[in-house]
Write a structure and sequence with these properties.
alpha/beta, Rossmann fold, 4-stranded parallel sheet
Length: 169
C-alpha cells in the first residue's frame, strides 16, 4: 500500500509542479498501452507539448496487434502504421514528464536514471488501481477494457496538461 500512496503522491505533484512540455509515454513493448496513449495525447494536447513513446522490449519496429488497432479506432486513434521504439537514457533525459503504466516500467525507468519527480503513473488519474495491465495475454474483453481505461486516463491527463499550459504566464 505504501508504494501505491507514493505513486499517487508523486504523480499528483508532477502534474501540479510547473509546465509540461516534453512527454515520454512508456510501457514494456510500445505496441499497446504507450502506443495508444501517446497518439491520443498528440491529438488532444496543444502544439506546444511534444509527445514521444517507447518501450523496454529490445526489438524495435514491431506493429501494434490487429485487435488493439481495432479497439483503438473506437476512440479515433489510428495505430495501423505504429511501429515500436526502444527507449534509452537519451529519451529519459529529453522528457520533462514520463508517463508509465506499471511497476515493471517504474523499475526499468529507475534503472535508466529517470528522476522520480518526473514520473506520472497513468492509472492514478482515474482513481482505480495505480497499475494498468499489459493486454498482451488478456482475453479480448479484458484487452478492450484496458483500452477503455487508457482513453479515460489519457483524457484526464490531456486535460490536466492543457490546464497547466493555460495557467502559465
Amino acid at each position: 500500500m505504501a508504494a501505491t500512496a507514493t505513486a499517487r503522491r508523486c504523480s499528483v505533484t508532477r502534474l501540479r509542479d510547473g509546465p509540461i512540455r516534453r512527454v515520454l509515454v512508456v510501457c514494456h513493448g510500445n505496441i499497446y498501452r504507450s502506443a495508444f496513449v501517446s497518439q491520443y495525447l498528440m491529438q488532444h494536447l496543444p502544439d506546444a507539448v511534444c509527445v514521444r513513446s517507447g518501450g523496454f522490449h529490445p526489438v524495435a519496429g514491431r506493429p501494434a496487434p490487429e485487435r488493439h488497432v481495432l479497439y483503438s479506432r473506437r476512440y479515433g486513434v489510428d495505430l495501423a502504421e505504429h511501429r515500436s521504439a526502444v527507449i534509452d537514457s537519451s529519451d529519459v533525459q529529453w522528457a520533462d514528464t514520463i508517463v508509465l503504466m506499471d511497476s515493471r516500467n517504474w523499475q526499468a525507468l529507475i534503472n535508466l536514471g529517470a528522476p522520480r519527480h518526473r514520473l506520472i503513473w497513468l492509472g492514478v488519474l482515474d482513481g482505480a488501481g495505480v497499475e494498468i495491465p499489459d493486454p498482451d495475454r488478456l482475453s479480448d474483453d479484458e484487452a478492450a477494457a484496458v483500452v477503455d481505461r487508457l482513453q479515460e486516463c489519457g483524457s484526464l491527463l490531456a486535460m490536466r496538461i492543457s490546464e497547466s499550459q493555460q495557467s502559465e504566464p
